[in-house]
Amino acid sequence: MQYVYAFEEGSKEQKYVLGGKGANLAEMTNLGLPVPPGFTITTEACNAYMAHDRTLPDGLLDEVATRLADLETKMGKRLGADDDPLLVSVRSGAPFSMPGMMDTVLNLGLNDASVTGLAKQTNNERFAYDSYRRFVQMFGKIVLDIPAERFEAALEALRHARGVATDPELNAEDLAELVETFQGIVKDATQGEFPQEPHEQLRYAIEAVFQSWDGRRARDYRKLEGIPDDLGTAVNVQTMVFGNKGDDSGTGVAFTRDPATGEHRPYGDFLRDAQGEDVVAGIRTTEPLDAMATQFPDCHRQLLDTMQRLENHYRDMCDIEFTIEQGRLFMLQTRVGKRTAAAALRMAVDMQAEGLIDTREAVLRIQPAQLDQLLHPQFDPHAQYTPLATGLNASPGAAVGTVTFTADDAVARHELGEQVILVRPETSPDDLHGMIAAEGILTSRGGLVSHAAVVARGMGKPAVCGCAALDIDVHARQLHVGDTIVREGDLISINGTTGEVVLGAVPVITPEPTGPFDTILEWADGFRRLGVRTNADLPNDAIVARQFGAEGIGLCRTEHMFLGDRLPIVQRYILAANEAEEIAALDELEHLQRADFVGILEAMDGLPVTVRLLDPPLHEFLPDIEELLVQDARGELDDTGRRLLHAAQQWREANPMLGTRGVRLGILKPGLYRTQVRALFDAATERKLAGGDPHVEVMIPLAVNEPELALAISWVREVAEETATETYGAGGINYAVGTMVETPRAALVADEIARVAEFFSFGTNDLTQMTFGFSRDDIEGRFLPRYLELHLLPANPFETLDVDGVGKLVRMAVELGRATRPDLQLGICGEHGGDPASVAFCHEVGLDYVSCSPYRVPLARLAAAHAALAAAGPGSTA
Ligand code: ADP
Ligand code: MG
Ligand code: MG
Known about the structure:
The chain is α/β, with parallel strands linked by helices. Helix 5 packs parallel to helix 7 (172-190), helix 13 (341-354) packs across helix 19 (515-527) and helix 26 runs parallel beside helix 27.
């Protein structure tokens, strides 16, 4: 196996073997750009080194020696020779950029003898000693693992002693003295001399780069970014060029377009008389690229030309590192540059207009998840802050407000014009009014599909959930984090994109989705096959979703129509002593709900609206049983209170999520579903009479077999007929009736269920919960993180659809259902509808649409386009 390649031998396609840096150095070399010559040791060598207990693979050192000899011939110099030494840099470079994770050693080959040779050869003693002190410093830090502070402190002390502010003010003697000090530090730390032999230096440096792949920071970064651990890093050995040779030299970094805004103009920083990291270290003030035009007109022109060439060649924005040595430009690195989401959109649209890329590629250039950055306020990237605690990033965006501990307090403060954050151990449907009033939501318990998380995402509000470090005392209206006490009214900031919680106000910026945002999404619409609907319970959510391009409602929950000020009516219904009382309560509800439905149908006029009939267990509409018991013991309950207690006891269930809910409750209390359907069809009729175009889909939740579904559907059809007969005569309103497929059994007998259901909507939250037997509210704070850490699960199945298990059920239900009813409409309305990877699966199994929360609609549109393009294969236009 060949472990070492000269730059001339590689290309940009070989980043897995040569690393990103090595592959691009090879590409630039072969483009004829001025790249200092060198060679690359492959990632395979690194992996072999790791696999064999950190021993260099056989033959590697021989290969390095051969390549080094070639390089020496080419440059006419020998590594570290006394008279005129060849110096090299040793640079790490993994297949994926891992900024700041792996380090680089410059000026390797210098020692006590060759430094004088370099001084003589260049007639620049100061430069020679500056290079040498940098080498000892970097080698000490990176190869010998000596804390960087020790060198920095010595340098600082010298500057202080000489009464100067910056390094260029130190002279040759100062730097020679510094070299000695640095060597003293090395001796003190390692109990050995600084290695003088150049080949030994090289070998140590290569091994240090290999080892840095397994360093703590590198491993943490890979985990965070999902980069596999077995890729390994390459090592580049490259002839040094010098930006630290005086005022006619310098070094810089640049982007071919502005990486923050996407504006089409070169952007960069330049530092005179400097080497390597000086530019980014921030010790000295850099100059903008434009300033080079007057100082180095030729290099500046050549640099701009080169940047243009690179951009045309890579057909993308590139970032580059360059050095000018005594008026000569050298290219030291390039790669496709990182950018903000706003810049990515603008660049994609601009490059399409410039003819650099086609529409298809422009759409593929934007990652769906990037769009999230543009739809929500964010902490100002320049803000400095220390998080008080970190929880789960449950709903993206940032918010600042005063702490409130109850929904009522939140509403009260909000009404006084305050911006508030609702802080709760967890939330329940009772807290909805407080969540609406709040800028953001923070909970100490609950996971990514807890009530707080799901509702916050639905509302597009930031939320941090399951922040276990918060010790919340609602009654005392305060919380503790360690020794810190936060009281009601204190200012707090939360970042739902990262999960950070910060005491005090962090500056927040709100990005504006601009023209390119709409353009990319319109293009995406041209490629996608999947429809995109939204989960929306309220007219306002529907309006927002429609603006984001939703093509209907895939899930309109009706729980909220039974809560808030309706609760007493619902409780009267539950407590009803006879049928007359029941009917009276239901009539009242029907009247109120009719108005709810009118609002939603109006907001989605002309588009389908899937209304799910009541789903939660009845006890959710009763007061907390423990509280009632306490009040009863204190003798505080009145007659109604005692009846409520009785009902709560009667409806209490050991496992309510698997108990009397969904269609089961509907069958036990048939008046409920009839009432809802009547309210819905009356609303549709009202809309129609007002000139509207309502499309109603009635969805029965939690069915497990055909007979129960058939019974519930028969009521829907009866009510439909009554309504139609009352208003127009037969055939009045266009409607469909179907079910939510959310129990494993429903999926298994989908062929039977499809005999009566006209559509399926996969409720993948419950389906995941029941397929795994995971209680989603309980596992996320407990064993799930450990499972993910140990790779016992590839991902949180409530975030990304479990294709192997749950997906198999979905696929089976699709096939069985369509076999019975070829025109069966199929959609998904779980949280997964807004997850890009899950959207791809939905495309692949042939669903008709996905439905997700309003703020995820743009993301789903783009993900659906990506899925269609990926399925069509590369180079295809459809
Ligand atoms: P990173 O991956 O952290 O950017 P690099 O390997 O790119 O590390 O090295 C950092 C800097 O060191 C480069 O930007 C460049 O300024 C300098 N450098 C690296 N190799 C050379 C070289 N052969 N000649 C001159 N400077 C170099
Ligand atoms: Mg670099
Ligand atoms: Mg469900």
